[in-house]
Amino acid sequence: MAVYTHLGAEDLAALIAAYDVGELVSAKGIAEGVSNSNWLIETTGAEGIGARFILTMYEYRIDTAQLPFYLGLLDHLSARDCPVPRTIHDRTGAACRTIGDKAVALIEFLPGVSVDRPTPAQAKAVGAALAQLHGAVGDFDKSLAQSMGLAEWRRLLEDCGKEGLADIDPALPDLAFSELGYLDAHWPEGLPRDVVHCDLFPDNVLMLGDKVSGLIDFYFAAEDFFAYDLAVTHAAWCFEDRGKRFRPEISDALLTGYASGRSLSDAERAALPILARGACMRFISSRAYDWVNTPADALVVRKDPMDFAARLDFYREHGTALFA
Amino acid sequence: MAVYTHLGAEDLAALIAAYDVGELVSAKGIAEGVSNSNWLIETTGAEGIGARFILTMYEYRIDTAQLPFYLGLLDHLSARDCPVPRTIHDRTGAACRTIGDKAVALIEFLPGVSVDRPTPAQAKAVGAALAQLHGAVGDFDKSLAQSMGLAEWRRLLEDCGKEGLADIDPALPDLAFSELGYLDAHWPEGLPRDVVHCDLFPDNVLMLGDKVSGLIDFYFAAEDFFAYDLAVTHAAWCFEDRGKRFRPEISDALLTGYASGRSLSDAERAALPILARGACMRFISSRAYDWVNTPADALVVRKDPMDFAARLDFYREHGTALFA
């Protein structure tokens, strides 16, 4: 949560002049994004384009060679009426530009706020929006292999080492490596797949009341099972008390909403318990890696991997009955 | 530059409901403010009140007992057509509320961007806006003693110690304490005074082209000499290359702009050289204190006190001729 680069009025005005969006009126660095800096920009506007935008500068982690994929995905989904911000192209038609040695993109601003504790009506709307996304991505002409899959979870956890994991929680090393073994042995194959979001936490959903006004932050999007994306969303939305308390009414609503837009096959439904366990391992592994590699006194808030160990316990015990 | 406290949609909606500003549409934490957290808030609006606001949560350093002073000052100046954001009062008429144990205020959003390298036309506008502020504050009914005056500069520097200062720059201890001695012996008395801004850096001025659209961040405002406030503004605006290069055209424009709104007395003009030296010491002392007390690896960017030592050198050599 930071703005890593200073951009003055002069830098911003020069950038904005490359787009047909009118003149710069206001710019505020916003505290969103871990791998990039973001500004909320207001301009005098231009016909057919609103007057507010998010300017994103890609700072870390994101391979800028993949920007045409990420930005093209926004445009593809937005053109199919998904609540996804479109990319504003500059006067030459380019979706991204550079300032100094850094890539930047100007992205449509969408209203809405992220909820902390969703209601069933909100969870239903999110399920429906996810199904809409899955239905709209079919003819997108770019793809990106999943780099955050099972092999990467193992690599991250092995990099932490059993001692590093035990420092987080004494139970974590056994839990993590035994679960990895199970997932390796039983991970499904052949389920319907395409480019999916893979990170649809409440933070990444903007809502106006019960309506989804925006799905944002597609920088973990990659080709994977639709049902895995649903499992990630389920794990992200259906728990409270840091993963310790399951919210059945949210689970029901999310699955009902999804079913309203896309039917799960029997094979997908049967796979959901293991996919949900995988979703937990995905966040256990990345959070454990960040935990071990972030100094305890750094100002970055470390996210506790054990919040997803609690969810994993739940899915191991109740997953089969839950998704039956 | 951070948002220290998480506020979810539910917290924000509950807060906004206490004001007659319509319903919450968007909220983005913004990367401004060192002592407080800020959000750019959009609502559906209400008659006579715009639909965008800055929500400030007071986190550190600011004595919330002084909030009626700071917020009242905004309202006072705004009512006198100064380009200052007014405070939005809640349905009970209160200028601030609390969330948990923290005070918050909802403040008018003003357009504009801060410039990095002002033009003479911009500096002239800033000088005129400062004079307008000085002319408008007369009948404000609250006051606040200057807590960042000479005695405090000495306390901060003594707290650093000569070794701490020498770690920043070997020349700093002698420079600082000899200058403090000079200022103590020669600081003027009896100049016109009232509540003044005391921190009018380019960061705290919003501009639209050559026009000042907003003067913000009054949290160092206190009773002091008008001419001292002008000296602070001069030191903040008229240099580049980290204080090493004076910009005479900016100085001329700033002073011309100020003179267009308020005439300096002979005594004020004669005092400007020492007041400008004092302005440098004010930022040398606070920056040195923060430097010594901020870990080198903290994510907060430390501001170099030597940038103001360079300005001090300039004023010592050229101040008398400059302001004659």
Description:
Two copies of one chain form a homodimer. With 324 residues, chain A is α+β, with helices and mostly antiparallel strands. The first copy, chain A, has helices spanning 9-16, 67-79, 120-136, 150-168, 172-186, 226-237, 248-261, 266-293, 306-322; strands at residues 24-30, 36-43, 52-58, 87-88, 97-99, 102-108, 193-196, 205-208, 211-215, 222-225, 239-240, 245-246. In chain A, the strands form four sheets. In chain A, strands 1, 2, 3, 4, 5 and 6 form a six-stranded antiparallel beta sheet that branches. A two-stranded antiparallel sheet of chain A has the order 7-10. In chain A, strands 8-9 form a two-stranded antiparallel ribbon. In chain A, strand 5 and strand 6 form a beta hairpin. In chain A, 47% of the residues are buried. The A-B interface holds A 1-3, 8-13, 24-32, 40, 42, 111-117, 206-208, 295, 297-300 and B 1-3, 8-13, 24-32, 40, 42, 111-117, 206-208, 295, 297-300. Chains A, B: Its EC number is 2.7.1.39.
